[in-house]
Design brief:
By secondary structure, the chain is of the alpha/beta class. The protein is built from nine helices and eight strands.
């Protein structure tokens, strides 16, 4: 184990990230990144003291749970590790400005960011090379995002489901197979469909003793009778309001409604997909 002049062992924190299941199955999977990190530490004389993992999270933003925990730990004085080790700079961030911001912030606390596959030094030429690489990573990420959205929009136009978690009251089923690709669609989930129908009935005509009920009254009605949400929790005003205003429940699911920051997209970018109506 390499020891610095003060007698302290050099310490490393390992940050691992994948953004998609497809990526996780390829050579940048979490286990593979971990193996490469351990091997690098053993070769270079570092003790691996902590590992941070963000699985299925994009690096276009630093709003990642484990990433934030990593930065918080690295900001402590004294820092609990000397370097942060990543498979490549794109695992740490795909935003050039955010990457440079965090590199400088870490450096002020004596922590260095090191890439296993993109070794660069600290001289001006090497720093410029790193910035060029990260700018290209950011450009590539944005281009990939455009291609992915284009494919998802076409998938929606054909009536298929994009995404993982369906709205409450629906489940995902296999619609058809195209070679190795499975096309998915929404089907009514009998386990939770009646809860959604009840919410609409309460909003339209009440419970038989009252007139039409507002969102707050519906929430109180459901929680008082221990009618739980899909994950077994209590109902809230926001989620109940979302059900009552979502066109999916009347058979018209709208895909690509919002961009980054939840901004509403123009109507010509929104695609309406026919789904089984619940109400």
């Amino acid at each position: 184990m390499t020891v610095v002049s003060s007698g302290e062992i050099l310490r490393a924190a390992l940050y691992l990230r994948v953004s998609t299941a497809r990526q996780a199955a390829q050579d940048v999977s979490i286990p593979d990144q971990h193996r490469q990190g351990e091997a690098w530490c053993a070769t270079h004389g570092y003790e691996l003291v902590e590992t941070f993992v963000d699985a299925g999270v994009s690096a276009t933003s630093d709003r990642r749970p484990e990433f934030q925990r990593l930065i918080e730990a690295a900001s402590k004085r004294p820092a609990p590790f000397d370097i942060i080790l990543v498979h490549s700079f794109s695992r740490f961030s795909r935003d050039h400005f955010e990457l440079e911001f965090h590199i400088r912030k870490l450096a002020r606390n004596g922590v260095k960011l090191i890439s296993i596959t993109q070794e660069v030094g600290d001289d001006p030429m090497q720093v410029m090379m790193r910035r060029v690489m990260t700018l290209f990573d950011e450009y590539q990420s944005r281009e990939n995002g455009k291609h992915t959205l284009r494919a998802m929009k076409e998938n929606a136009r054909q009536g298929f489901w994009n995404g993982s978690l369906p709205p409450i009251g629906y489940r995902i089923v296999e619609a058809e197979r195209r070679s190795a690709k499975v096309k998915k669609a929404l089907a009514i989930d009998p386990m939770h469909a009646d809860t959604v129908r009840l919410i609409y009935r309460l909003a339209l005509s009440g419970d038989g003793t009252t007139g039409p009920m507002g969102v707050k009254a519906i929430v109180e009605y459901l929680n008082y009778r221990r009618i739980c949400t899909r994950d077994g929790g209590r109902w809230g005003i926001g989620q109940t309001h979302k059900i009552l205003t979502r066109t999916t429940y009347v058979g018209r699911h709208q895909f690509n409604m919002h961009g980054k920051g939840k901004t509403r997209k123009s109507d010509d970018e929104v695609i309406t997909v026919a789904v089984p109506p619940l109400c």
